[in-house]
């Protein structure tokens, strides 16, 4: 009956595109895509389609862009596509009237090894916490966020200097493969569901992955080198860990740190103190050593190497006194 299930795909950002493309390439009938409404951006505030919408249109797939997922007209449109299964990747929370619709259920792809790192920013938080292992998980959606029964999971190692952006791209590919395997397994009935509750022996051991706001990205130079390094790479390239360079007259420059490397040292100094040769080397004192800056972005400027930054803006350090 479901040899080739009718699929409705929910997603918005580029992370979801790899899965949509792989489903289409595998011959699955994706009968509709649900994505966010077009958003104005740029100087002219021109409305831009989401990456998922662009992909869907390139495949000739009908696109729905509801502002309210409980809207009666949207629900009627969704039912009209007669989905056998629904797939959700990087989309907002669905009401029960939506996720309970298809006979084979609605599953989500999450960028962590659930039940760890439930929430909106699992990739960032895993790196910020210094994890060496993460992964991707598919699970059935229910009434609570990221808590439904697990279908499949794939482990992925995190390299010591890997940034969130780099890990994002690897998990995007791994997730697309897992989504395809999940559809096949659900259709042929070979997947055994695992309730997340049986995997939680100690609730206190669970790490959350809440949405990250700007002030959450401010660097605390009083922490140890590894912790600061993990914090920086976990927020790179976006939203970007930052610090303020304050001028003696009270004004300040906002500096994002996009790539850095730790150095353990017993050298004395005040955490937050910038040390530079004015040419190619720029490091910041932390609790147990230094953080060497390799890639930075000054407010209003493009990302650049530390050397380029010092050649163009090294004068800043003669007018500032650290953070």
Fold topology:
Layout: E1 7-11, H1 14-25, E2 30-34, E3 39-41, E4 46-48, H2 51-58, E5 63-64, H3 72-80, E6 85-89, H4 96-99, E7 106-110, H5 122-128, E8 133-140, E9 150-157, H6 164-188, H7 225-234, E10 241-246, E11 252-264, E12 274-276, E13 282-286, E14 289-298, E15 304-305, H8 306-313, H9 316-319
Parallel strand pairs: 1-2, 1-6, 2-5, 6-7
Antiparallel strand pairs: 3-4, 7-8, 8-9, 10-11, 11-14, 12-13, 13-14, 14-15
Helix pairs in contact: 1-2, 1-6, 5-7
CATH architecture designation of the largest domain: 3-Layer(aba) Sandwich
In angstroms, what separates the terminal alpha carbons? 64 Å
What's the CATH topology label of the largest domain?
A: Rossmann fold
**Estimated radius of gyration:** 23 Å
Work out the strand percent. Answer: 25-35%
How do the SSEs run, as a string of H and E? EHEEEHEHEHEHEEHHEEEEEEHH
- Low-confidence blocks of residues: none
* Structural class estimated from helices and strands: alpha/beta
Class of the largest domain, according to the CATH hierarchy? Alpha Beta
What does this structure look like?
The structure is a single chain. With 323 residues, this protein is of the alpha/beta class. It folds into 2 domains: 7-205, Rossmann fold (3-Layer(aba) Sandwich); 214-319, Methionyl-tRNA Fmet Formyltransferase, Chain A, domain 2, CATH 3.10.25.10. The protein has 9 helices and 15 strands. α1 runs parallel beside α2. It is elongated, with a radius of gyration of 23 Å. The model has no long low-confidence stretch (mean pLDDT 94).
